[in-house]
Specification:
Length: about 260
Amino acid sequence: MKCLVAVKRVIDFNVKIRVKLDGSGVDTEHVKMSMNPFDEIALEEAVRLKEAGTVSEILAVSVGNESCQETLRAALARGADRALLVKVGSYIEPLNVAKILKSIVEQEQCSLVWLGKQAIDDDCNQTGQMLAGLLGWAQGTNVSKVTFKADTTDKTDNNSNLLIVEVTREIDGGLEVLNLQLPAVLTADLRLNTPRYISLPNVMKAKSKPLTVVSAAELSDSALDLNPHTKTLKVEAPKMHRTGVMVKDVQELVEKLKNEAKVL
Ligand code: AMP
């Protein structure tokens, strides 16, 4: 079973974000960029599935500019077999990323797609769901545990290799367990696994693994409509929080709430 893992290049989670002066977006010049943390988790799970013999090949895909090659090399060092960069000029919204991924999934005949549950730059939490919708596949989002099993409900001889995937999802009220029929789209939550460190030999090995760069127009589905449906009007930094103060007793707290905060 071929597995596609979508990896997005985002501003590193340790970096303090600066909003551009004209409010058109955030500053990415001279800023450390990394693989989206949820994508690292998704990729780690795909690598574990390959080590367990469930997955035969892992294709890491990124949609973005030339610099995404660095992120894809990191994906190869983490255990992906091949990498594909679909070059686009500017920010591309989740629906259009999903359309591009669909085209690759069909061309590569993948039966499993892993994505992060959300990208930490736009926090959209949409791409996986949209991809599953476009493909008409089962989806398991916010997955914190995954188990592949033979489909014992299947009575036909020719489909005896069919697998179902049992996913545990983190939802507001607790955990939800679902059985999905493959092919499926899965999105990784934080507690799914802890990605391994990249070893130096694997970094060296990654240099000789195949990394292909194509433009969106070169995909098999060249009639893709990638026109944007949304427009960013303005980006603003969040208001600074006032620092807290220690009060010595309840009386002082009530007095401050009444006279300073004026909420009582
Ligand atoms: P989002 O819907 O933007 O929060 O992103 C959810 C997931 O979709 C990410 O964690 C990635 O796995 C994938 N994804 C989104 N945008 C891209 C992109 N430009 N390139 C590759 N994967 C992406």
